[in-house]
Design goal:
single chain; 275 residues; alpha+beta; Helicase, Ruva Protein, domain 3; Tetrahydropterin Synthase, Chain A; 3 domains; three-stranded antiparallel sheet; elongated
Length: 275
């Protein structure tokens, strides 16, 4: 008879994040020894890391930090929502975020190659893959800087960790308006700050589509320039933060709200899990 109890199974699952069947097998092999079972799970898990590389990570969380003049945003992904809402995964994400803040990582590669407690962050993830039994990866990392930096996290489900995260940097000190704008970004998902940030090829393509659509609709030739310009401006109003109608007052643009509050938006980042 196995030399362990249901409480031992529960404790090992909570400490490693591994599945029920894997935990039972490890305890059987370790004759109930928790430390040995943990090592077994780790070794077997590490052997399977390469097998998990091709798996899809569609769940996870977004973690954010706004300290002083710097804001950091990290997207950490896993395979299932069961793991995403677990304490083990949450603790790993917190550790990863703290490291991103410490090194002010600008992208995932910088963060993964940085050293934490004598290991690279990538090695720490590999170990987590081993014990939890799922592919875990840092998908995206962003950093913004300004006089005032705010962060905002949004849960799309009460049972899951934050799925949408925003960091916003501004010149000026109206933190409340900055936070309102961060909440707006979470809801309306702008892709760029200003229309100058839109790639020229994207604008050219929008003009081509607008013209082709207008011609297909049989619009008069003389009216085409105005129609095309109106539709391209519509594209800007949908995608450019400064030109979007503000969530709390649709009669004003985000740019106008920021101006009235004495703010100049210098940068932002928005992540949504898996998007």
């Amino acid at each position: 008879m196995a030399n362990y109890t249901a409480a031992d199974i529960k404790a090992l699952r909570e400490s490693t994040g591994a599945g029920m069947l894997d935990v039972k097998k490890a305890l059987d092999e370790a004759d109930g020894d928790q430390a040995k079972a943990t090592e077994i799970l780790r070794v077997k898990g590490l052997k399977g890391v390469t097998k998990r590389e091709g798996r899809t990570t569609e769940n996870g969380l977004v973690a954010a930090s706004a300290e002083g003049s710097v804001g950091n945003l990290v997207e950490v992904l896993c395979e299932t929502d069961f793991v995403a809402k677990g304490e083990k995964f949450g603790a790993l994400a917190d550790r990863v975020l703290k490291q991103a803040v410490a090194v002010n990582a600008k992208n995932a590669e910088e963060l993964l190659s940085s050293e934490l407690d004598g290991q690279t962050v990538q090695s720490i993830l590999d170990e987590a893959n081993a014990t939890i039994g799922e592919k875990i990866e840092i998908k995206r990392v962003a950093s913004v800087e300004g006089d005032t930096v705010v962060s905002y996290l949004h849960k799309t489900s009460p049972d899951l960790p934050a799925q949408i995260g925003v960091v916003l940097a501004v010149k000026g000190d109206d933190a409340q308006t900055a936070r309102d704008i961060a909440m707006h970004i979470a809801a309306f998902s702008p892709t760029v700050l200003s229309r100058e940030d839109v790639d020229a090829d994207t604008v050219a393509n929008e003009r081509r589509v607008a013209e082709a659509t207008a011609r297909e609709e049989g619009k008069p030739e003389a009216a085409l320039p105005k129609i095309i310009e109106g539709r391209v401006n519509g594209f800007f109003k949908e995608n450019v933060l400064l030109e979007q109608a503000f969530a709390k007052d649709a009669k004003k643009t985000v740019g106008k709200v920021a101006e009235e509050a004495g703010l100049q938006i210098t940068g932002f980042a928005r992540f949504k899990v898996g998007v």
